[in-house]
Amino acid sequence: KHMxxxxxxxxxxQYPLEETLAKLKALGVNVVRLKTESEFYDTKxxxxxxxxxxxxxxxxxxxxxxxxxSPRGTECYYYTSYSQPLAESLTRHVSSYFSxxxxxxxxxxxxxxxxxxxxxxxxxxxxxVLIEMGFVSNYEDAMALANSTDQDGIAxxxxxGIKEYVTRSGxxxx
Length: 174
Known about the structure:
Layout: E1 4-9, H1 17-26, E2 30-34, H2 46-52, E3 57-64, E4 74-78, H3 84-101, E5 110-115, E6 128-135, H4 139-146, H5 148-169
Parallel strand pairs: 1-2, 1-3, 3-6, 4-5
Antiparallel strand pairs: 4-6
């Protein structure tokens, strides 16, 4: 069975998105992309599009923003208990990339898997998460999100997090 993965991007997440999709497609994953930058998708309906497409996973790929430059790092939001392992895997892989390749101090800024009731995480037919790849309000995070080498590394980290989750959960194979 091929895994169908619905990927949602907002305006701040366009940087490593295409690289992530290309890497997933290269693995044979059937990717369904909601083009939120050019078409209107009601936020409340976005998870239902994934269900309508028969997806196994729903991943909203975002970038965070704060009122100051100091917050940095990655976090992943989930609502259902069976979405938590996917959230943990994604944030672990993406934060590891940032720690090893982006942050000059090598700090681990894994802000963790966060329980939250959001429209994009409430889908209960399959695991649904929202990954925040970094803060556009933080200089180091923003520069990484805009750098092609880091975009490729972040994309690979997302793919590695998905692969780890799929392998461990036995949900499906790609």
